Structures are given as structure tokens and as C-alpha cells.
């Protein structure tokens, strides 16, 4: 499946805004969880974001691929870091994760990750 990840995330943002309006407490709680991982602790925020991307790959979540790829590019994730995370995701998830890892690389490149390869 081919996705335009910038368009996908923008479209999802519109739906997420609607959900925020209709189920505000749920989205408020989710937003608080998301913000809490963006601070360095025992793990850097970039490491946490790489873990989130790996889980998105394992879950075959296209929206997750887009949002986490965008964030990783903004955080300055190198192609080498991204590829190493893909190796772990593929190792842990086998063939299905290999296919989704290829899509994750497309998302990373769509947001200009390390100037798109």
C-alpha cells in the first residue's frame, strides 16, 4: 500500500481534532501520556520515539508510521539510527514487520529524513 505520509498525518489530524471535541477527556489523557515521553530521562526522547516507531511497525499502524517518522525527522534522527531501529523491529516481528519497515522508511523519507536518503 502506498501512502503519502504528510497527507495521511494531516488528514488524521483533522479527525483527531474532531475526536478531541467529542471525547475530550480521553484525548486529554492520551495527549498527557504522549507529552510525558518527550522529556529525556533514563532514555533520551529520541530513543523513546524510536521505540514508538518500532511498536507502530509491529502493530502495522500507518498513522503511527507517519506521526513518528515526522517526529523523528524533527528530532534529527539520522538514517543510520532509523535503519538500526528497523533492524530491531524486523527481528522482533518477522516478515510482516519487514513489509511495514519498508513503509516506515518511505514515511521517514517523505518527511525529508536525512534529506530523503
TrEMBL record:
Domain Carboxymuconolactone decarboxylase-like stretches: 24-106
Molecular-function GO terms, alphabetical: peroxiredoxin activity
Gene3D superfamilies named among the record's database cross-references: AhpD-like
Domain of life: Bacteria
InterPro entries associated with the record: AhpD-like, AhpD_core, CMD-like
Matching SUPFAM superfamilies: AhpD-like
Protein name: Carboxymuconolactone decarboxylase family protein
Source organism of this protein record: Synechococcus elongatus PCC 11801
Amino acid at each position: 500500500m502506498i501512502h503519502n505520509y504528510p497527507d495521511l498525518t494531516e488528514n488524521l489530524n483533522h479527525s483527531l481534532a474532531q475526536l478531541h471535541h467529542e471525547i475530550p477527556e480521553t484525548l486529554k489523557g492520551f495527549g498527557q501520556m504522549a507529552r510525558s515521553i518527550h522529556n529525556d530521562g533514563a532514555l533520551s526522547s529520541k530513543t523513546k520515539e524510536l521505540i514508538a516507531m518500532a511498536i507502530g511497525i509491529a502493530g502495522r499502524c500507518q498513522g503511527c508510521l507517519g506521526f513518528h517518522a515526522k517526529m523523528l525527522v524533527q528530532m534529527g534522527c539520522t538514517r543510520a539510527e532509523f535503519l538500526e531501529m528497523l533492524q530491531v523491529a524486523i527481528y522482533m516481528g518477522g516478515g510482516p514487520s519487514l513489509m511495514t519497515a519498508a513503509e516506515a522508511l518511505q514515511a521517514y523519507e517523505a518527511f525529508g529524513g536525512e534529506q530523503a536518503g
